[in-house]
Design goal:
- This protein has about 170 residues and is α+β, with helices and mostly antiparallel strands.
- It contains four helices and four strands; from the N terminus they run ααββαββα.
- The chain has helices at about 25, 35-40, 85-110, 135-165; strands at about 45-50, 65, 120, 125-130.
- The longest helix has 30 residues, at about 135-165.
Length: about 170
């Protein structure tokens, strides 16, 4: 990731579609692009994703890898050792706030989706994914569609917070 708000067509984005880029299709599975971009927009970094597979070649659900510790925000060209303690603390506080907002939206999403809730396991490198694996393409397609609903909720959270702070 080049920068938290890099690669968006318009700033601030007005619709979920504004955060989806044409070139994203090369880097991210098409069915999961909206969710990956919405998570990043909210201030939570991702490192990997997949729209899922039920043919045995991958995980049987869509998933997004999310980083939850500030030192993971840096690639090898930006060493965390070059930052002072205050900078590290600031980055972790920013990430914690972003994750807090993310969890609030995820809880709202899961309240409406009791059938197969989405979870974020509790590790530094965490996967956001449906709780249960998909048995067939129909279930997988349903979870992919739910990922767009979650993306919309995350995007709306961003718009609400951004507009409040920016006075838009």
């Amino acid at each position: 990731m080049e920068g938290l708000y890099m690669n968006f067509r318009a700033w601030p984005p007005k619709t979920l579609e504004d955060i989806i880029l044409k070139n994203s299709e090369e880097e991210i599975d098409k069915d999961i692009i909206p969710l990956v971009k919405a998570i990043n927009l909210l201030g939570v970094p991702t490192y990997s994703s997949c729209a899922g597979h039920v043919n045995g070649t991958g995980l049987p659900y869509p998933w997004i890898g999310i980083l939850k510790k500030q030192y993971d925000l840096f690639d090898y060209s930006h060493s965390i050792e070059n930052l002072d303690t205050k900078q590290k603390e600031y980055l972790q506080a920013y990430l914690n706030k972003s994750l807090e907002r993310f969890y609030i939206v995820l809880d709202k999403f899961n309240e409406k989706s009791k059938e197969n809730m989405w979870i974020l396991d509790d590790m530094t490198y965490s996967h956001l994914r449906p709780q249960k694996p998909c048995k067939d393409e129909i279930e997988l397609d349903t979870e992919r569609k739910k990922s767009v609903i979650l993306a919309s909720l995350l995007f709306n959270e961003f718009r609400e917070k951004y507009c409040f702070y920016a006075g838009h």
